[in-house]
Amino acid sequence: MTKIDVFAHVLLPDFYKKMLMLDKDLATKMPFIQNPVLTDMTKRRAIMPEGTKQIISYVNANPEDYMAGKMAALLVTKANEELLETVKENTDIFAGGVAMLAMNNIPEAVRIIKEFIPAHPEILGVQLFTRHLGKSLADEDFRPVFEALAETDTPAWLHPVFDSRKPDNNIIFSWEYELTQAMLELVQANYFQDFPNLKIIVHHAGAMAPYFAGRIDYILPETQAADFRKFYVDTALLGNSKALELCVDFYGVDHVLFGTDAPLGVEPAGATELISDAISALPLSEEEKTAICYKNATQLFGLE
């Protein structure tokens, strides 16, 4: 079955070199970025899963954490140009790219959404993180970004980062909490009410939300509980068909998109096979499985 992997990562070489100049210990702090398939597209092509095209976004290394707004925006611009060229040069394996933003330069972030992305159809949206500059994604300072996303009908990919205030961050559980909390904050800020066409794709199958559906439905006001189901989610659970079944039950087939976190999770190429097997095991029709693997993405991102 043809698949579009909506959440696959890269750390392209020119951008990576610049980030190492800002933080020489970056690879020690984030050991997963040492995977060469993130950087070397020849190696990536050699292990690409058959019948799959990826939508690529940068790993969670953001210039805004190291530089003032003007310089961060310049580096982000260079990173997005490198991403664009990589997609153009590898259209047989990449279906599109996801732009980076510097959230310490909101006017430039808005410019990317309103000008750079419409000018380059290979770039399908922007990546946001659960926290920026130590602040919640729902902070009022970032609202112009959401206004621009809604105005231009541009999707956003939501990826977790650690909350530096916490002493017990870990990649197994903490990121799922961070995703869930960011979703709650966006819902409680009434973003889906203010921007009805807002499209946010959440990593890791919507994190904790499917497994706490009862608490969401009985504790939140009815409108906010309904808004929780307006997120789109990927399937990046490293397999686990039963958990994925709860995810589909909560969000609905039309809001679940094939995504693997490739090439991370299972070295060297990622968890495409594990996740494909988990989808195959779901008690769904072949038409519904095809929607998850391919058709939902083509419709959401206009890839047809």
- As an assembly, this protein is single chain
CATH homologous superfamily descriptor:
Metal-dependent hydrolases
Strand content: 5-15%
Helix content: 40-55%
Present the secondary structure layout.
Layout: E1 3-10, H1 13-22, H2 26-29, H3 41-46, E2 52-58, H4 69-89, E3 94-99, H5 106-119, E4 123-129, E5 131-132, E6 135-136, H6 143-152, E7 156-159, H7 174-188, H8 191-194, E8 200-202, H9 213-219, H10 222-228, E9 232-234, H11 241-251, E10 256-257, H12 272-280, H13 286-301
Parallel strand pairs: 1-2, 2-3, 3-4, 4-7, 7-8, 8-9, 9-10
Antiparallel strand pairs: 5-6
Short description:
The chain is of the alpha/beta class.
Describe the structure.
The mean pLDDT is 96. Helix 5 packs parallel to helix 6 (143-152), helix 7 packs across helix 10 (222-228) and helix 9 packs antiparallel against helix 10 (222-228). This protein has a single domain (3-301), classed as Metal-dependent hydrolases (TIM Barrel, Alpha-Beta Barrel). The chain has helices at 13-22, 26-29, 41-46, 69-89, 106-119, 143-152, 174-188, 191-194, 213-219, 222-228, 241-251, 272-280, 286-301, and strands spanning 3-10, 52-58, 94-99, 123-129, 131-132, 135-136, 156-159, 200-202, 232-234, 256-257. The strands form two sheets. It has an eight-stranded parallel β-sheet with strand order 1-2-3-4-7-8-9-10. It has a two-stranded antiparallel sheet with strand order 5-6. It has 13 helices and ten strands. GO terms for molecular function: hydrolase activity.
